[in-house]
Each structure stands twice: as C-alpha cells, then as structure tokens.
Write a structure and sequence with these properties.
Chain lengths: 125, 255
C-alpha cells in the first residue's frame, strides 16, 4: 500500500488541504465526482471531531493509504493529555458516514483521539 | 457643506465646471464632496433596489459611491445629458459587480470562478452522456484543463456563499422559482421525518427543505448527482448545500 502523510495544525481551516489531497489521490484511482464528494464529506465529518469548530492547540497527523481499489485515511490528534475530546460518533454522524464511506471509526488510540476511514472504488460496470 | 440634492441643475453644472477647472487639490476635494452630497440621493435610491439580496443597505450605498466617484471624474459637460442619466448605469454596474464578486464567501480569483461555472455545467452534461458520475480525468479531458485544476475547481465550490435556499436560482431573474419551490413536496414530505428528529434534535431544527436533502442523501441513499437531477439543479449546488448544512450541524454538536 502506498502511503502519503501530512501533519496539520488542528484547525478547521486546514481541512481544505486534507480534502484536496484526498480528492487528488481518489482521482488517481479514477473515483467518480460523486465518490470524491462523498470522500470529502467523510473526511470532514471525522476530522471535525478532532479540530472542533474553533480549532485546538496541537496538530493532527493524517496518513493516506492508497490501494488500487480503495483509499484508507487515518487521522490522529496530537493533543496535550487531558484535552477532553469526544470520541464517540453521534447517531447522525454514524448515519452520514454509513452512506459516504465503507468503513469509519472514531476512537481513542493510546490515549489519542483518532479516526480511520475506508472508501472503496466503484465497481466497474 | 451643501445639503444633499439641494442645488438646481444650473448650480450643479456650475459646480462641475468649477471642479473641472480647479487645480488646487484641497479645493478639488472640497468641490468633489459637494458633488457627492448633491448626488448621494441617487446612489441611495439605486442601492435600495438591491437591498433584498442579503447585504446591508449602508454597504450597498458605499459600493454605489465608488460608482458615483468614477462618474464624477468621467462626466463630460459638453454632452447634453443629465448627470443622473449618465451616472445610473455606472452605479448600477458597480452594484451588480459587487454581487457577482461577493457571491463568494471567500475571495476567489476570477479564473477559478469561471472554472467553477464551467465544471458545474460539464459535470451535468458528461453525467448524461456517460450515464455515470464523471471522473476527474474525464472532466479534465472534456474541459481541456489539467486534473489539478479540476480538483481545485471542485474544492472551490465550497467557498461559494449560497446564502439562502430561498434565493432565486437564477439571480438575474427575481421572479424565477426558488429552490424551495423545486423541492417538491410529494414523496419525502412526511416519510420518516420523525426518524430524523429522533436521530438528532439538531436536524429537526433545520428548515424542512434542508432536512429533505439530508434525508435523500443519507437515508434514501441517493447520490449527489441523483439528487441534482431530481431537483433540477447542479451536482455542485447539491454539494454546496450538503456541505454547508453538515458544517452547521457539526457546530451544533460542540459542547
């Protein structure tokens, strides 16, 4: 699996960069526009838990894994211990992610809030 | 200080002549101020015609003033035409340009705005031709842009400030149907909206139409393109509306 990774300040304004990279990689796999839009929504939905609406102190490390038929994106918030961050998806988020991603997880990983998501390429018709 | 609009035609004309011939900068500034006072009523009158588009009247008046200042510099006294007749198209032009540029919540270069419009059209056309949502490569080929440019153009869609679902779909036509009209009330009206309400109280606080779009995408599983077809709007427009609504909902989840 090919890997691409970046680290961004934990602020919503940097999510655009993450969306662009996700879209760029998805485009290389010939995802359709609808699928790319879904991928962007999934990234936004999950990453928003880490950044909050106002941003936080710290960084988010994002790793994109590229396979011929899917993209996996993992994000980890490198925040000071004690930062209380919600790591449980709301019902609505769950429903949204179910539609736009093939797999989506938000969890506490070694004490750090993390997400991972997988989006498969459409089946060639 | 002249009272606004208080001068007669002859006096105003004399003021113009004085302004044109004055060489001292301070005198010119003072005379220009008098001219502005004379015609500010016209600017306010024209600005008011745009006031239902979601911008404060004071801001619009400021924009119109830019147009007024341009015309004051340009007005040709030798022409047999009223200043107000001469000024109106320029002031209106300035206001229209303001709306064309300010439809974007973030300053977006003209190049990208045009790219965005081009892509909006092409996604719909290609989708019909191909029978599926196009890929970036297909869009790039069809438009003659690079894939990077297409990606940039797609991302920039979110910078467009589609301020209201009640905004006319075509901003040049005030009487045209609004997005709300086109939603149609048939199939999704009653269906399972209670489900949404139970899913997240925040959703039920959204305008019904926004709930419907969320519902179609995330409950019925229609794609953005399918929703776009159903509503007779572009996929990009659906994308914008969804993104904006989701962003609003995320804000509501914050503790």
């Amino acid at each position: 699996m090919d890997k691409v990774s970046i680290s961004i300040p934990a602020s919503p304004q940097y999510l655009q960069v993450v969306r662009l990279i996700a879209a760029g990689l998805a485009s290389r796999l010939t995802f359709t526009i609808d699928e790319i839009e879904d991928l962007k929504i999934a990234v936004d939905e999950l990453a928003a838990y880490l950044t909050g609406t106002q941003g936080r102190e710290g960084t988010i490390e994002i790793e994109f894994g590229v396979e011929s038929d899917r993209i996996e994106i993992k994000g980890t918030g490198k925040f000071a211990p004690g930062d209380k961050i919600r790591t449980e998806l709301t019902e609505l988020s769950r429903q949204i992610l179910k539609t736009v991603a093939d797999d989506a997880v938000l969890e506490l990983n070694d004490g750090l809030p993390s997400f991972s998501l997988t989006k498969n390429k459409h089946k060639q018709s | 200080m002249t009272e606004r609009g208080s001068l007669s035609k002859e006096e105003a004309r004399a003021l113009f002549v004085e302004y044109r011939t004055a060489t001292d900068e301070r005198t010119r500034v003072a005379l220009r101020e008098k001219l502005v006072d004379q015609y500010i009523g016209l600017v306010e009158f024209l600005a008011r015609r745009f006031k239902n588009r979601g911008e404060p009247l004071e801001d619009l008046t400021q924009v119109g003033m830019i147009g007024l200042l341009k015309v004051i510099e340009r007005f040709d006294l030798d022409r047999e035409v009223e200043f107000s007749t001469y000024a109106t198209p320029t002031v209106v032009g300035e206001l229209k340009r303001h709306f064309r540029d300010k439809g974007w919540a973030v300053r977006v270069p003209r190049r990208l705005q045009e790219l965005h419009l081009e892509l909006t059209k092409m996604i719909g056309l290609l989708g019909q031709d191909l029978g599926h949502s196009p890929t970036v490569a297909e869009l790039a080929k069809a438009t003659g842009h690079s894939e990077e440019q297409v990606l940039e153009g797609l991302e920039i869609a979110n910078a467009y400030n589609f301020s209201s679902l009640d905004a006319p779909l075509d901003s040049d036509d005030e009487g045209s149907s609004t997005f709300a009209d086109q939603m149609g009330s048939e199939d999704v009206q009653i269906e399972n909206l209670e489900y949404w309400a139970s899913l997240a109280p925040e959703v039920s606080k959204l305008p019904e139409r926004e709930q419907h779009i969320l519902f179609m995408r995330f409950f019925k599983g229609l794609t953005q393109s399918e929703i776009a077809d159903k509503l007779g709007i572009s996929q990009m427009h659906v994308s914008r509306l969804l993104n904006r609504t989701l962003a609003r909902l995320r804000g509501a989840f914050e503790d």
